[in-house]
Amino acid sequence: MIDPITRPTSAPSRVPGPRGFPLLGNLFDLREGLFHEVLLRMHQEHGDLFRLRFPGGRDAYVVRDPEVLRHVLQMNNGNYVKGARMQIAAPLIGNGLFLSEGAFWRRQRRLLQPAFVRPSIALLVDTMVQTVQEMLDRWQIHAGTGQPLNIQDEMMRLAMEVVTRTLFTNSLTPEEVREVGEQFTFLLEVISERGQEIVPISHRLPSRRNRRFRQALERIDRLIYRLIEDRRRSGEYGTDLLGKLLQARDQETGQGMDDRQLRDELVTLFLAGHETTAITLTWALGMLSTHPAVRRRLQAEVDMVLDGRRPTAPDLDRLTYTRAVFSETLRIYPPLPVFMRESVGPDELAGIPIGPGETLLIHVYGVHHHEGYWDNPEGFEPERFLPGGRGPGHRFAYIPFGAGPRQCIGNHFALAEGTLALAMIHQRYVLNLTPGAKLEVDAVGTLRPKGGLWVHIQGR
Ligand code: HEM
Question: What CATH architecture is 27-439+455-459?
């Protein structure tokens, strides 16, 4: 979420950065393009750590120096929290893993972690494969007709179905899944609007939009509490993620989660778990249709490894090139191009003293496109992620899932889903962008393609 405005700062004046104007700060510079691209240009002029001024005399440090990233996200991570401004998402995701802090976050992370380690994800592969298969069957009527399909919508639906089924198996009816999806899309839209306000005020107003927001939230809550209650009452917890979370116990205290906390974690996982994966898959399909040699190599791998059958968990380790395509897409188009931290106490970053309460913008896109750490950073070259490939020039130059203790808990989940979907789609179909379609980035929130991505589908 690009939401960088915080409190007034006392940043020392020798910190490099664009000059800007009193009160307005760098507002005009920021209007000159997409946020992450403007920041990339600013890095070229002002270095890997610079100060950005927001209207109202508020500043942020923009960081893409891998050593500083290591320090902030790992070595001294205790000094950096998500910050007050991120709380804008709290009405929706509550005190779930994404927002919680300190000892409470640590306890929750310990409780949830076992469900997301690689062996646990392997158990979800069949559900993922079945969901992809149903999508591919649906596509059959489009194949060869010349009728264009918006692949972004398809990937959103796929990722939403995967996350719903892995969380709740079939406890939700297809209508409920669709409704949940719609309510979440609306709720996220409102949260994102609120995040872009310079003075956050709209959530306090008695507007129709806010009333609808509350109603959507109530609808989601009712549904989730019903699922939790049904399982508790029946005593049959099931083997899906909800079942695992219901049975999770803290190793030290033996305690599980109460209903409110379960709700917060489920909503967090649902939200964090689908849009990012869907967007990456959309970009990957776009890149494959514009890079025929890469596509041929992926098809060849899929044909060789799968030989016409459905993938299973052990295939994930064999589909190395397919996975590399997904990883390279995450480098070029990280779904979260920028995320935030706020300092708790004083610190020093690359020789610059940092006071408490300062905002840092972790510039994922910036470090992924850093010429000092990547050969040909603008080129789409999946082979850099093959075993023995050139990879990043620094461990912290590749952070699509963040890094350190707060690294994305769903990274194995996303990589499995992404690899399986790419493999199965290319096993059966060839996707080509419709004539005139371009791969352009949309301006808001997560890094998604503008106007969706329209393709023609043909059988292989
Ligand atoms: C390509 C897909 C994904 C990307 C790029 C992504 C990216 C990220 C990033 C950058 C963070 C760290 C944010 C920060 O440090 O402030 C994060 C955290 C998180 N992600 Fe993901 N994510 C993806 C998929 C998923 C999936 C599939 C799930 C769950 C099913 C998930 C659940 C979470 C949760 C719960 C957190 C908070 C972890 C914590 O603070 O302990 N994500 N994600």
Answer: Orthogonal Bundle (1.10)
How many CB atoms are located within 10 Å of the residue 222 CB?
10
Asked if residue 305 has pLDDT above 80, the reply is yes
With 80 as the cut, is the pLDDT of residue 28 above it?
no
Q: What is the mean pLDDT of residues 314-318?
A: 97
Report the amino acid identity of residue 53: R
Mutate which of 408, 417, 447 to test ligand 1's pocket (most atoms within 8 Å of Cβ)?
Answer: 408
- The residue contributing the CA closest to ligand 1 atom 39 is 406
> Residue 12 — very low, low, confident or very high, per pLDDT cuts 50/70/90?
low
The residue whose CA has the least distance to atom 30 of ligand 1 is 273
Where do the domains of the chain lie?
27-439+455-459
269: Cβ below 6 Å to ligand 1? yes
Q: Is the pLDDT of residue 10 over 80?
A: no
| Residue in the structure block whose two tokens are 């992809």 | 132
